[in-house]
Amino acid sequence: MTMFASIQDLVQTTPGWIASDGTAGEVILSSRARLARNLTALPFVHRTKKSDLVRIINKVETAVRASATLPHALFFSMPEMSALDRQFLVERRLISPALAEERKECGVFVSPAETAGVMVNEEDHLRIQTIQAGLHLEAVWRAVDRIDTELSHSLDFAFSNDFGYLTACPTNVGTGLRVSVLIHLPGLVLTKNIEPLVRGITQVGLTVRGLYGEGTEALGNLFQISNQRTLGRSEEEIVTTMDRIVRQLIQHERRACEAVLHEAPSQVEDRVWRAYGVLQYARVLTAHDAVNALSSVRLGVSLGIIATIDIPTLNRLVVVTQSAHVQKLTGRALEGDAQEIARADVVRGLLTPSRTPPVRRANDRSNP
Amino acid sequence: MTMFASIQDLVQTTPGWIASDGTAGEVILSSRARLARNLTALPFVHRTKKSDLVRIINKVETAVRASATLPHALFFSMPEMSALDRQFLVERRLISPALAEERKECGVFVSPAETAGVMVNEEDHLRIQTIQAGLHLEAVWRAVDRIDTELSHSLDFAFSNDFGYLTACPTNVGTGLRVSVLIHLPGLVLTKNIEPLVRGITQVGLTVRGLYGEGTEALGNLFQISNQRTLGRSEEEIVTTMDRIVRQLIQHERRACEAVLHEAPSQVEDRVWRAYGVLQYARVLTAHDAVNALSSVRLGVSLGIIATIDIPTLNRLVVVTQSAHVQKLTGRALEGDAQEIARADVVRGLLTPSRTPPVRRANDRSNP
């Protein structure tokens, strides 16, 4: 019998991937890998009847419980959850917006540290995923591969010798592997180099999207970059190519930041410090304002202008300033002004530990 | 022989009227009184030839040096001064914008504490003026009356038994007394009660203007209120009436502030604290931004939202964030971005005295 976890178990904890800043953590918020898998002898999710969907969940649970990596996973069952709680999981990056919309039997298994999970009955029977802070594509790939291997001991995954792993959508056929990074590119946005770069990235077979995946806007200069092709390349090739391109992108971004700082140092410092002031002092704060201020402050940390706030705190703020997080942290449903007031409280609560305002100046940049 | 003072004598000092906050100091920045006087046997300024203008200055100087109140007054001679230094005196509220524009022989005697002064050859031969922080109309009237009496021992003031003191402009005939307050009315502006109130004030014979007198815009919710009529009423009547009306206005303003706070407490706090954040963190700051931020912070002090900044500091900031002050404090002529950067430095220097180095930078000449 599946035990349902409560969102409340997650509200007061910090996702494991936020705890460290990781390699190039000021530019790369997180690296993720996910594998699409389907069980043999059962139709794809969109053609499966309810009793079979429940059977799939039970099969996956058995496999998850028997695995070495996810034996203590929490299970969140979508039909049992409120819209707010589902949104919380989306903001936590544990489920896709698509899963949050589902009315049918589906859900997600999540490791207690929230660094690994298995969505069940989203587009595919299983979407196995792993996440880490910073640029660690090789590591998240190894982690997701390990879980895949562990689950395959008790599950039969649909596989064709011609096509590889079979998936509901042809774009995932083959390895079923998608690796992605969440990357912060304020320098390239400010220098207006972002559009040609996005075009270039698209041409080499990657996709650029906003924070929440397909069709979402790039808020706060945050972009999600992932591989488009899953077929005709080995997993190692996908990971290596992605890693190489992302490292180039990081170099481009760093050069753009230095150029912006060189061109107008006071204007950059002004933007960074005013944003810090907004986070520290606002009493009413929209999600939009928050993500933009966080972007400017992150730029400041990245350029060595601000030294009193660390990347894990910024990552945490990106997560907890989202709408459902503000509401869950405050303990009640909030809209409009009330939510904006609560958001400002949440931010100040996280920033107040260091009370003395930092007064680093441009020419003190000891660690650019 | 008249000794010319240097603006540099004032740059690093704080005007005496700022040093204390005075009665109702959070609403009333300052109370001022001035008397218009002209010497007998000499035509009014606009019809006096240069040699006579010099004679007037010399006569006034003799009287000033012989007075009990102003024996050590500094003299600033307009023809000897740069446009920047004149502007500095306007911002310091020691001379009128009209005097700063003059090309002819004219100037101002200023007490070392800057609480009393005598403009010479502005519209009238003498404009004797006194200033204090807060609401102290009776006190500034007594002070200006004392100086008038002292000067009249050595000067013959033009006086008619029918009209009283004779002045170049008929609006000053009679007592020649103008009393004024610089008042901060954010509550009445926010509640949109300011226009009817200004109309009402005008109907009872007072004039409402912006910070720098006639024709200037009300920046940062700061208004200058003065009596229009100088004839047909005793000095005591003018002062008493003005004091009564200003006290009513303070009550109106306080009620408006309480209403605003009651209606949208978080929005008011947000405005106040964000403004504080701007002052504390901006690296580029326009004069307009500064005066608006100072207005919001003052509102916060007035409402008890902010307790970490005092009224004298706010008054000082209103003075030193003005264009000529920023330049004199920085030690060089600055425009555009450079001035806005220097302004932000000046503000941070005053807000974090212990941590930020003085407004002057290492590469500045110490004595421009």
Task: Describe this structure in a few short sentences.
2 copies of one chain form a homodimer. Chain A is an alpha+beta fold. Chain A contains 14 helices and 10 strands.
**Largest interface (C-beta under 8 Å):** A-B, 19 and 21 residues
Q: Structural class, judged by helices and strands of chain A? A: alpha+beta
* CATH H level, superfamily name of the largest domain in chain A: Glutamine synthetase/guanido kinase, catalytic domain
Terminal-residue CA separation of chain A: 54 Å
Query: Largest sheet of chain A at a glance?
Result: 8 strands, antiparallel
Q: What count of helical segments of chain A does DSSP give?
A: 14
Shape of chain A: globular
The string of secondary-structure elements of chain A, in order, is HHEHEHHEEEHEEEHHEEHHHHHH
Helical proportion of chain A, percent range: 40-55%
Quote the beta fraction of chain A.
5-15%
The strand line-up of the biggest sheet of chain A is: 2-3-4-5-1-8-10-9
- Rounded radius of gyration of chain A (Å): 21 Å
CATH class label of the largest domain in chain A: Alpha Beta
- Total strands of chain A: the figure is 10
Which consecutive residue ranges of chain A, at least 5 long each, have pLDDT under 50? 354-368
CATH architecture of the largest domain in chain A: 2-Layer Sandwich
Overall mean pLDDT of chain A stands at: 89
Write down the CATH topology of the largest domain in chain A: Creatine Kinase, Chain A, domain 2
Number of structurally distinct domains of chain A: 2
